[in-house]
Amino acid sequence: MANLNKPETATTTDSATGTNNTAAVGTISVNVGVPGNIKKLVLEGNGWTVKDVLKYAEIDANGYDIRVSGQPSNADTPVTDGQTVLLLRPVRGNVDLGKNENNGATGTISVNVGVPGNIKKLVLEGNSWTVQSVLRQAEVDASGYDIRVSGQPASLTTPVTDGQTVLLLRPVRGNVDLNKDNNGATGTISVNVGVPGNIKKLVLEGNSWTVQSVLRQAEVDASGYDIRVSGQPASLTTAVTDGQTVLLLRPVRGN
User: Fold this and answer.
1) pTM of the model as a whole
2) 17-21, 120-124, 186-190: which range is least confident on average?
3) How is domain 179-249 classified at the CATH fold level?
4) 3 state SS of 110
């Protein structure tokens, strides 16, 4: 198997002091940026705020409105695993956002859409999106594809909510486009795997994946690393479910 480029340490900046902190337990994975330029961070510990995340990402929020997972926020708002810190220009109608013209709801949602191997992230205003409106916003044609929303069969009228993935699959036996587990279960899961600074996203068919099978699919060698699944210590036999992150960390003092 291919080996990932290994970082010098497995720790990151402490959220409170701005110094390296190897004593914190667990990690969180967050997204931060502006629509169209979102970066993923893996952060150690769990006391992070918007201000800390922006400082770590070296992003200046002056002149922007702040949203955390679609809700209006400020510099002191806590940020937890899986959330998105989004900076928006405070202009009427917010031209940076994909808009749902059918309601006046506030807030935003972040969704993924595409085919296996070509997934794009959208930030959409409002909360009454469907598969059809998401595909229209992404300029994606679903003709000839089966539709899945977060792994489940769906139609053009299926609602789409924050954090979900709209996946288009060729309706062929066995679905050769997908990575498969060893059972006949239907549905797909989307997981992240790698080391801090080098995370890849996989779309996997079935629902009985373990750390070992995910690493094998990603062609990643975990030798010499500690394993975390969504921030918690894990082993090769730990189950991996939709939306989780398999993170490999150097076993340094305090890790």
Assistant:
1) 0.40
2) 17-21
3) Ubiquitin-like (UB roll) (3.10.20)
4) strand
Tokens of 44: 């150690």
pLDDT at 156: 92
Burial class of 104 by CB neighbour count within 10 A (0 to 12, 13 to 18, 19+): exposed
Residue-wise pLDDT for 26-45, tens only, equals 889 898 988 767 888 888 88
Tell me, what's the pLDDT at 191? 84
Residue type, 187: G
Extents of the domains making up the chain: 97-171, 179-249
Nearest CA to 161 out of 243, 251, 79 is that of: 243
Please tell me the distance from the alpha carbon of residue 199 to that of residue 247, in angstroms, as a whole number. Answer: 8
CA 69 to chain centre: 12
pLDDT, tens only, 41-75: 888 888 999 999 999 998 988 888 888 887 888 99
- Quote the CA–CA distance of 79 and 83 in Å, as a whole number: 7
SS3 assignment, position 201: strand
Q: Report the alpha-carbon angle 41-45-49, nearest 5.
A: 70
In this structure, the strands spanning 118-125 and 98-99 are parallel
Give the span between the Cα atoms of 240 and 230, in whole angstroms.
9
- Residue 106 has what pLDDT? 56
214 token code pair: 């995910």
Residue type, 67: R
d(CA 146, CA 90): 38
Domain 97-171 belongs in CATH node 3.65.10.10: no
